[in-house]
Amino acid sequence: MNMKIRLITILLLALSLAACDSSVDKDGVPKVDIHGEIVETPAPKPKAAWLANAFPKVIRTRIITVQDKKMPLQEFILTYCQGKSQNETCSRAMKIANLDLNGGPRKDLPKGL
Questions:
Q1: Of the four, 56, 60, 107, 113, which is 20 to 30 A from 45 by CA?
Q2: Angstrom distance (rounded) from CA 89 to CA 84
Q3: Which domain holds residue 72?
Q4: pTM of the prediction?
């Protein structure tokens, strides 16, 4: 009887360790390169005011790869970072997204991001 309990315990421990995914941290946030790449897409229909004020005719978006799927940084934050502002990946993602919203996405980010 005691041997069966030990065997079941060892089996359950082995199964739980096998189920652990090393690409996800303890908060359930995927480990990704948060810098991603910047993709330019044409603006739907540039408005006359945009053209008069020399606004760009393209929309620049930061795209990251999460589990072999490409998604915008904002979508990553909405999907994985709700209520997890203390998580390191989410904190960096929110800082980068804030910089992108204020000055547009750029390749050169401040040190530490």
A1: 107
A2: 9
A3: 23-103
A4: 0.69
Q: Residue 31 in contact with residue 24, Cβ under 8 Å?
A: yes
Evaluate whether residue 61 is within a structural domain: yes
The number of residues making up the chain comes to 113
Radius of gyration of the chain from Cα atoms?
A: 21
Please give the distance of CA 102 from its chain centroid, rounded to a whole number.
Answer: 19
Token pair in block for residue 35 = 């810098």
* Local confidence band at 65 (pLDDT 50, 70, 90 cut-offs): very high
Q: What residues contact residue 35 under an 8 Å CB cut-off, 6+ apart?
A: 62, 64, 96, 109, 113
Q: Is the dihedral of CA 87, 96, 98, 112 positive or negative?
A: positive
Round to whole Å and give the CA distance between 24 and 18: 14
> Is 12 contained in some domain?
no
Token pair for residue 11?
């089996």
Model confidence at 55, pLDDT cuts 50, 70, 90, reads low
